[in-house]
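To fix ideas at the outset, we first show an illustrative case, written as a sequence plus integers encoding its fold:
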Amino acid sequence: FAHAGLKRYKLDYCNNLYFSNRNLVQILKRGTKNASAISYIETHKNNFKDLENKNVLAPFNHDELKDVFRKASLNSLTLTIRLLPNNELRAKAINVLSVVEWKQKFNSDIHFGIYGNSLAELKKVKPELATAILKTVDIKRVSSKIHYQKFDYITKTLSELKEIDFTTTSEILSSVDIKVLKRKSKHASVEQIGIGLSRLYDIDQSISKSLFEELEIEFLSNLFADKPLTAFGHILKEFKKVEPSKTQNLIRHTLEKEFVISKLNSTTITTIDLFTFYLLFSQLELRNEGQELLKKVNLDIIEGRVKSSYIKHSVQLVNAINEIDPSFGKKLV
């Protein structure tokens, strides 16, 4: 009974606060994030049988909703639209503002990452609007905002923009000083650098290659020290996509590091760790390097994992080793 009473209280509160509130429009216009109340109510109203069929936009006429949307910050507004339950309702919300008004929203002083995220949200519902906004963007103004963002955020946003309009995104990237990108990358993890270069490669190969060349192999190699062996492969594949020859040098240099041998000789290493790591030598066509590494590690660890693991994992490890050194692979069977 107490639970039912609490639910009724929440229902009445939700109804009175939102659907029956005569001051709702004025309340939502008071702050730049208050528009999110619309999506919040939409998300939670289905918990109440008496509210589940109510239209969350019903309390507003067109001009009232326009006033609320004009006041809302860009990220609050696009998040609100994304959380609406279907594309029909999302399209209705988007059409409250004209194309000109949407352009004004995006051309205000906003965060570079929010720009990409918000356009990506619009693209899902109305791609032609997202394209129209991006095509009229102030290239210099948007690129200047990149200076304040982290490397991963920059490349993620550019990757999102690329899916909306490739030409404009290329122009934005071309207007950024590569020294800025290099400086940003120095504060990123090796995963973020790898995927970031890969993202940039899909926009402008020359910029991505140039940035990769600017990064010292010793610097990149040391970033692998705190990474698990299972992460090496997918990270290195991103680098190889940009510049295979430098990636091979990076791999060779990294394999000389003591931390690699220590990881491989660890008594806590798993069969999956070993399989995933040794597999990358055949995938990246580095069998010679793999053979040299096998001469340095404790082979008893590999043999022990093969004998003590599930048959599936043991077979995977044997196959990975066999791709590098068939003679040693046969000894494991």
Remarks:
- Residues 1-7 have pLDDT under 50 and may be disordered.
